[in-house]
Amino acid sequence: MNDCLFCKIIAGEIPSTKVYEDDKVYAFRDINPQAPVHVLVLPKEHMDSANAITSENAGNIAAVFEAVPKIAAAEGLSDGYRVINNCGADAGQTVMHIHFHLIGGRKLGEKIV
C-alpha cells in the first residue's frame, strides 16, 4: 500500500522507535502511549484489519503472536500485559494496517474501556 502510514514506517520512510523486527513482524513504540509500555506490533505484510485475515495470510498473525512474548519480556513485563486490536472505525482503528497494541508496565485493571 503506497499511502499506508505503517507500511512507510516498516520501509524506513517514516521514523519510528523500533523495539523489535524479524522477517515478518515489526514493532515500535506508540507515539501516544496509554501506559508506561505501549508498543504497536504488526505484520510487515499489509492487511487492512482483522477482517482481512484469511487462511493464506494467517501465518503473519501467528508470527505477531510469537513475537509478542519476546517483546513483552524485553520490555520487562513479567507481571502481565494486554494485547488489543481495534478493528474498524467504530472500534477506534485509525490506521488501516492491522496492528496490535502491547500495553503494560502498570496494573491495568479488569475493564478494557
Strand order of the largest sheet: 1-2-3-5-4
Approximate shape: globular
Low-confidence stretches: none
And the CATH topology? HIT family, subunit A
Multimerization status? single chain
**Overall number of strands:** 5
Alpha carbon gyration radius:
14 Å
Question: Which percent band covers the strand fraction?
Answer: 15-25%
Describe the biggest sheet?
5 strands, antiparallel
**Terminus-to-terminus distance:** 31 Å
Per CATH, the superfamily is HIT-like
Q: What is the CATH architecture assignment?
A: 2-Layer Sandwich
Total individual domains: 1
Mean pLDDT: 95
CATH class: Alpha Beta
Helix and strand composition category: alpha+beta
Instruction: Tally the helices.
Output: 2
Q: What proportion of the residues is helical, as a percent range?
A: 10-25%
Give the SSE order as H and E letters. Answer: HEEEHEE
Describe the structure.
The longest helix has 17 residues, at 58-74. A hairpin with a 3-residue loop joins strand 1 and strand 2. This protein has a single domain, classed as HIT-like (HIT family, subunit A, 2-Layer Sandwich), CATH 3.30.428. By secondary structure, the protein is α+β, with helices and mostly antiparallel strands. The N and C termini lie far apart (31 Å). The protein contains two helices and five strands, in the order H-E-E-E-H-E-E. Strands 1-2-3-5-4 form a five-stranded antiparallel sheet, with helices on one face.
